[in-house]
Amino acid sequence: MTRVLVVGAGPAGIRAAERLVRAGLRPVVVDEAARAGGQIYRRPPEGFTRPPEKLYGSEAGKARALHALFDAMVAAGQVDYRPQSAVHAIRDGVAHVGAARIPHDRLILATGATDRLVPVDGWQRAGVYSLGAAQIALKAQGVAIGRQIVLAGSGPLLTLVATQLLAAGAGVAAVLDTSSLATQMRGGIGMALARPAVTARGLAMRARLGRLYHAGVRLERIAADAVHWRDGRGRAQVTECDAVALGWHLRAETQLADLAGARFAWSDTWAQWLPVADEMGRAGPGLYLAGDGLRILGADGAEVAGALAANACLNDLGIATPGARALLRRARRLHRFAAAMARAFPWPSGQLDALPDAAVLCRCEGITLGQMRDAAGLGGAEANRVKSLGRIGMGRCQGRYCQLAAAALIARHAGLAPQEVGRLRGQPPVRPVPVGALLED
Amino acid sequence: MTGQLVRLAETGRAPVAFRFDGQDMTGLMGDTVLTAILTGAGSLRPAEFGPERRAGFCLMGACQDCWIWAEDGSRLRACSTPLAAGMRLLSEAPQGWPA
């Protein structure tokens, strides 16, 4: 039987596995979490009692369906499921998972995304988290990240996490959106055209935030007990808090795609490098990508992309797959929606350009903007050279949280476009692993 | 000191005793190590490259901010490690490490 490896058991990975199983294959599914579901449909540990309606709101039905589908495939022995396993390298058709090796003929990567971060002066402090972290803490552990929380950034998660925290009884001090209302209106028209119901739900959520919500802000500094910011009219504001959650949309998790041989292109829409694939997710010989690790379409888009990638894989094996045209139509609509949303809540260039030289750019190793600029001065405006000389992207997150901002800043100082600065090459191991796992017999 | 994290739900779980930096602490069954420590403490560890302390950042295994130590010299990622009874955890490398 053809050996198909699926990496990731979120919405994309689960839907991909479903299609493969239906065609009679038994894929290996490797996932880093203890329970399948991915981030947005993350499940709490055994013994937690809140129902899906409480955890996932309007999306509870989708979460329930995905969890039940995957659990049923595992119970029936239809997938070879490896939970709590992280692929740290891929080479020559073999995935390295700790000391284990998984050879495969075809590879479907559904590696998802992280929050996309923009450094704010002081963001290295304890008590500063990503927006995704604030949501995970609430959903999977039943805790708030602090007593008085400032949520800041832009994108759908900002409003969603704020309303979820308020509903759970957390103290939310302010919700600070770097996108102006005018910008949101321009993108919002496209959003409403592509998905009117979802757009209306977002607006209703926003309305619930009332006076906590501020649009068009610029974040200046995170101090020990407050966030300093400027409102839409440029007036200085200070909001006291003991926790901050930051995030500007999502950043595709692409290291494994890189190691597996995918090509990349700069996306102006999502302001990041994304893998190149056809509409089905084919990214190379035997390589298929799906979900937010390919295009930032969110959970609904990930389900569709997972099914499409599995279809592509099956088609390439000579197996016909019905219903592909309807899936493609849906994928295109979700793409229009997501692109409009990216325009409504853009990357905050103005705020980044105002970052002071002493601000920490790399949280892992405390490297400041000034130090990075010195490195760029020595080696030139190229991302991998700046990494070699200045260690930006060399820390243990491997550039996941600093490289987009670093590239934007290098580009600005050199008078280039961000894509001209280049892209950090993925390097194994893509996660820290014990040295013992790397020893060959 | 008060914890960075505040429990809002799921508080009926069984208590789990562990030690952090020599102090007896109690978490709940199903807590991650990060949750268990930070509901009782303000941070997980000192930063290696700056004066500040750290308390995790992404909680999804991507940022690697929350690695701490056990008294036996092993290391663990607090956001993705379930709490177990009797764990003896440290914010910094144990005395005399490496042995």
Topology:
The complex is a heterodimer of chains A (441) and B (99).
Chain A: E1 4-7, H1 11-22, E2 28-30, H2 52-56, H3 60-75, E3 80-82, E4 87-91, E5 94-97, E6 100-103, E7 106-109, E8 113-115, E9 128-130, H4 131-141, E10 143-144, E11 149-154, H5 156-167, E12 172-177, H6 181-194, H7 196-209, E13 213-214, E14 218-222, E15 226-230, E16 236-240, E17 243-248, E18 250-252, H8 255-259, E19 264-267, E20 272-275, E21 282-284, E22 287-289, H9 298-316, H10 324-344, H11 349-353, E23 360-362, E24 367-368, H12 369-379, H13 383-390, H14 403-414
Helix pairs in contact in A: 1-3, 1-9, 4-5, 5-7, 6-7, 6-10, 9-10, 12-13, 12-14
Chain B: E1 6-7, E2 15-20, E3 23-28, H1 33-38, E4 45-46, E5 53-54, E6 67-70, E7 75-77, E8 88-90
Parallel strand pairs in B: 2-8
Antiparallel strand pairs in B: 2-3, 4-5, 6-7, 6-8
Question: Which key terms come to mind for this protein?
Answer:
heterodimer; A: 441 residues; alpha/beta; FAD/NAD(P)-binding domain; Arc Repressor Mutant, subunit A; 3 domains; 6-stranded mixed sheet; 5-stranded parallel sheet; 14 helices; 37% helix; globular; B: 99 residues; mainly beta; 5-stranded mixed sheet; two-stranded antiparallel ribbon
Description:
The complex is a heterodimer of chains A (441) and B (99). Chain A is an alpha/beta fold and 441 residues long. Chain A folds into 3 domains: 4-114 and 251-321, FAD/NAD(P)-binding domain; 117-248, FAD/NAD(P)-binding domain, CATH 3.50.50; 355-421, BFD-like [2Fe-2S]-binding domain (Arc Repressor Mutant, subunit A), CATH 1.10.10.1100. Helices cover 37% and strands 21% of the residues of chain A. Chain A has a 6-stranded mixed beta sheet with strand order 3-2-1-7-22-21, covered by helices on one side. Chain A is globular and about 65 Å long. The two termini of chain A are 28 Å apart. The mean pLDDT of chain B is 95. Chain B is mainly β. Chain B has one domain (21-90). Chain B contains 1 helix and 8 strands.
